[in-house]
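Quick one, tokens below:
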């Protein structure tokens, strides 16, 4: 311990939902590796999805070598020295600006890679500014005004770009997608007749329990009916592994109750190292058997309120405050939910804290240890 445990049954449930959307709406769904990149389950995911998306040479290589299918890549700007190798791995490249198209577009075409451009519909629906690609002065995607100034589409039948890509959502549903799509078509719809494909980006929480899947299928079919020549892509990351993994940890010490009526419980799991989004997003992950405690005053319903902190020396390495119906003791197990996404891809060895094991729990209940980390994984990076 600690260990990440990927629940194969939950993963398959998500993949089946996504597969049904792709079949009913005739769209192609890709795995955005930035959220979930566990090689051990790539062969399983590849049975349901059309391929992967990446934002770097290494991610592209990882998807190409281990997943197969289509390999798409987007980056705010590409590194010149990596372009030759990158173009040999991918079949779609999305540039972030007309300048990047001018620099690398023809090179990509000569290698048989389809060229796309990320656009900014300027429709802000993300609730956290740091995760809003459409906020003022965003570096992601080209606005219509800047696109017009560039002259990229000045020719009526410009052949420099095959597709358009927009990504505006963050853990959101159908209503937000409708707003974004309307803004996209209003600002960029006139270019669609000359495109071959459109990528609706990620942030679609399609596998969340309350997501309107039927409504999504209807929206996609309506769009395709109006633009029958276009191939449509979606690239959710979280939706693929949403609620499909846990992080199992252990209580190392319980400190005396503080003046606020809360015990500090030190775990062998670190927010800073093992679940960075808890600090960066920020959010409080669910705990099996516990309830997230949000009041500034002691909970009269439970005398057992614990602030979970990690083993690092970082003062802010705190996971959250939880209320339990029972007392916790040193050595007890604490299991955090929804820990497959943005954990393994972002974890680190700050303070020399070791990384959790990676385990796959198969449908039959058997467990497979797919990776165990040690000192060399810490030292080799330094």
């Amino acid at each position: 311990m600690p260990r990440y445990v990927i629940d194969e049954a939950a993963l398959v449930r998500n993949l089946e939902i996504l597969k049904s959307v792709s079949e009913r709406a005739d769209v192609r769904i890709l795995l955005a590796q930035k959220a979930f990149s566990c090689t051990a389950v790539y062969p399983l995911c590849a049975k349901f999805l059309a391929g992967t998306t990446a934002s770097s040479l290494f991610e592209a290589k990882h998807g190409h070598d281990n997943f197969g299918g289509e390999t798409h890549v987007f980056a705010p700007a590409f590194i010149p020295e990596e372009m030759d190798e990158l173009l040999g791995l991918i079949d779609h490249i999305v540039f972030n600006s007309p300048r990047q198209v001018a620099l690398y577009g023809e090179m990509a075409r000569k290698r048989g890679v389809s060229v796309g451009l990320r656009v900014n519909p300027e429709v802000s629906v993300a609730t956290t500014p740091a995760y809003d690609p459409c906020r003022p002065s965003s570096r992601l995607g080209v606005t219509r005004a800047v696109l017009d100034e560039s002259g990229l589409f000045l020719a009526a039948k410009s052949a420099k770009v095959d597709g358009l890509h927009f990504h505006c959502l963050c853990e959101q549903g159908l209503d937000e997608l409708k707003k974004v799509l309307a803004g996209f078509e209003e600002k960029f719809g006139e270019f669609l007749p000359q495109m071959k494909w459109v990528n609706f980006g990620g942030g679609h929480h399609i596998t969340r329990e309350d997501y309107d899947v039927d409504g999504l299928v209807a929206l996609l079919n309506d769009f395709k009916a109006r633009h029958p020549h276009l191939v449509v892509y979606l690239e959710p990351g979280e939706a693929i592994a949403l609620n499909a993994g846990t992080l199992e940890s252990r209580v190392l010490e319980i400190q005396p109750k503080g003046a606020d009526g809360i015990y500090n419980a030190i775990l062998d799991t670190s927010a800073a190292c093992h679940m960075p989004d808890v600090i960066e997003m920020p959010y409080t992950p669910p705990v099996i058997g516990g309830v997230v405690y949000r009041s500034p005053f002691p909970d009269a319903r439970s005398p057992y309120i614990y602030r979970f902190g990690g083993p690092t020396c970082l003062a802010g390495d705190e996971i959250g405050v939880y209320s339990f119906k029972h007392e916790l003791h040193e050595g007890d197990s604490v299991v955090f939910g929804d820990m497959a996404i943005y954990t393994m891809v972002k974890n680190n060895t700050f303070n020399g804290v070791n990384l959790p094991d990676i385990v796959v729990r198969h449908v039959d209940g058997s467990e497979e240890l797919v990776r165990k980390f040690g000192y060399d994984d810490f030292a080799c990076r330094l």
